[in-house]
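W.,

You were right to be curious about this one. When I first looked at the sequence I had no strong expectations either way, so I just let the prediction run and decided to look at it fresh. Below is the sequence, 203 residues in total, followed by the output.
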Amino acid sequence: MKKSVLSLLTVIALATMSLVQTGCGPKAFTKGEYDDVQNENNLNDQWSETDMQKVVADLVAGMTSHPAISNAKRPPILMVTKLQNKTNEHIDTQSIMDMVRVELSRGGKTQFVDKEAREDVADEYNYQNSGMVSDETKKGPGGQVGADYIVNGRLDSIVQEVGKDKTVYYKVTLNLTNLKTNISVWSDYKQIRKKFRKRSVGL
């Protein structure tokens, strides 16, 4: 009788352990919903789309209000190039500069030449001059418009951590350089600092 009870208790214990282990197994995000991209996102201590939106909005507003753009007789032609990443994070700086270009173009005060498209343009010139395209519509070298200014910049960060407290500071600097004179006619930066506090995360 005692052996039967002991065996039964052993089976119950093993079954309970199995259920506990199953409940504590790997978890996955299985259901999502759309969120407003304008809502602030500070889910972790990394660079976020909220940081990008704040930085780009302020710097583009400052650039377009500068006389080199606001008082120009015709929309200046810009070439948006690189944003150096001097942080310890892997940040898609191309995405930041893409947003800069789009926001500048929305104002209608500037025009752009696309550095990234040069290889594609050269390939298309070769094709159009291969005899496959009519003389009336084909394009070729020598007709492109040169940029007036280059837009580039740098992303820096400082991380400080003491005990359970952590701050992350970002500074994004943009420059507008006259291609003819190599003079930087406008330069400005935007700063962001975020505070975090470490806490235990349960299962």
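Here's what jumped out at me. The mean pLDDT is 87. And, maybe more interesting for your project: Helices lie at 2-23, 49-64, 67-70, 93-106, 118-132.

Coffee later to discuss?

I.
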